[in-house]
Design brief:
transcription; transcription regulation; Arc Repressor Mutant, subunit A; Homeodomain-like_sf; mainly alpha; chromatin regulator
Length: 79
């Protein structure tokens, strides 16, 4: 039994999302949102990176009760 050589056919689809990174100054200038705390925003962006923008999974693991639509809205308003 010989193992296959070369790239796996579907390896080209195994990509990671580049999630926005921001400094304290950038957060204050561009990302401040009255209904979101800095801590929640940081958690959201970390989960987006970790779970490749799979918002159903992110919503399941998000520490506060936020809808999938709220999470998507917050993420995409900052990018």
């Amino acid at each position: 039994n010989v193992p296959p050589t070369g790239d796996y056919d579907f390896a080209k689809y195994n990509t990671k999302v580049d999630v926005l990174k921001y400094t304290d100054e950038e957060y204050e200038k561009y990302l401040t949102e009255p209904t979101w705390s800095r801590e929640e925003t940081d958690q959201l962006f970390e989960l987006c990176q970790r779970f490749d923008l799979r918002f159903i999974v992110i919503a399941d693991r998000f520490p506060t009760a936020r809808s999938v639509e709220d999470l998507k809205s917050r993420y995409y308003s900052g990018t």
